[in-house]
Amino acid sequence: MKIYAAKDYNDLSRKAANIISAQILLKPNAVLGLATGSTPVGAYKQLIKWHEQGDLDFSRILSVNLDEYKGLSGEHDQSYRYFMNHNLFDHVNIHKENTNVPGGLSEDPEAECRRYDQVIKDLGGIDLQLLGIGGNGHIGFNEPCEVFEKGTHVVTLTEETRQSNARFFQSIDEVPTHALTMGIGSIMGAKKILLLASGAGKAQAVYDSCFGPVTPHVPASVLQLHSDVVVIADQDALALVKEKAGLFVESWEGMIYDN
Predict the structure, then answer these.
(1) What is the pLDDT confidence band of residue 247, given thresholds at 50, 70 and 90?
(2) Fewer CB atoms near the end CB (10 Å): N or C, the chain?
(3) 223 is a domain residue
């Protein structure tokens, strides 16, 4: 695991976009595992800018998203299909038929989960998986629990997660209670993982995930077992890493940890 310190959110976003763009240039038909939420938006904006400048070509890229709310259609403005279209897909030359998001309106969610796992398998797995992290350490919608779920599954969202996402809805009552999410097995099967964290609210989760015990009670802690993980976090998100892990941070512009 490598941890890079970013000066601020803009620096974090550019560093992340550099890694994603390098993957695209290295393998023009790469399978990208993509994430939603506020954290990756800046990286997506930078990728769009480079595409508009003629530096990035998405025409052969394939993608699989981590998750989708159960009960929301792709046209709902809070669905993750809508998020990806609005924040990335509509602004680059990716072919929509090459993008994949779990079906939130499936009449048989369990069958949809099995279908989604097969999609990932048929694509040959994920080359680069982008992740955010929840304040409770969740990745995708893999919430703290007793065991790591291997495959795509339906999850009951914790109250903490629903409250965190309520800012995107008219009220907490409108926030879905369930989601379909890629499992830990599929995430860990990615060849490379890029985890982004911004803000003081992520500090405990970042520290526990990088330096605490590997436990399903902190889902992101499983990333310690992966051979190629890059964490990019800003000063606030790294506050406890700096304090508790004894890492001296002279500059907020580079690598601070490599095991």
Answers:
(1) low
(2) C
(3) no
Positions marked catalytic: 67, 136, 138, 143
Question: Could you give the number of structural domains in the chain?
Answer: 1
Q: Is residue 245 part of a domain?
A: no
SS3 of residue 28 by DSSP: coil
Q: Residues 197-244: pLDDT tens digits?
A: 999 999 999 999 999 999 999 999 999 999 999 999 999 999 999 887
Write out the H or E segment, with its range, that includes residue 209. helix 203-211
Q: Is residue 118 part of a domain?
A: yes
The pLDDT confidence band at residue 257, using thresholds 50, 70 and 90, is confident
- b/e sequence 46-73, b meaning 16+ C-beta within 10 Å: bbbebbeeeebebeebbbbbbbbbbebe
| CATH number of the CATH domain containing 153 | 3.40.50.1360
User: β-strands 31-34, 128-131: how paired?
Assistant: parallel
Neighbour-count burial of 87, counting CB atoms closer than 10 A to its CB (0-12 exposed, 13-18 middle, 19+ buried): middle
One-letter amino acid for residue 250 of the chain: E
pLDDT digits (tens, 9 = 90+) for 102-149: 999 999 999 999 999 999 999 999 999 999 999 999 999 999 999 999
What is the C-alpha to C-alpha distance for residues 98 and 114, in angstroms, rounded to an integer?
19
**Beta strand residue intervals within the chain, DSSP E:** 2-6, 31-34, 62-65, 67-69, 99-100, 128-131, 153-156, 178-181, 192-197, 229-234, 255-258
The H or E element spanning position 242 is: helix 239-244
Are 190 and 126 spatial neighbours (Cβ–Cβ below 8 Å)? yes
Domain, as residue range, for 165: 9-191
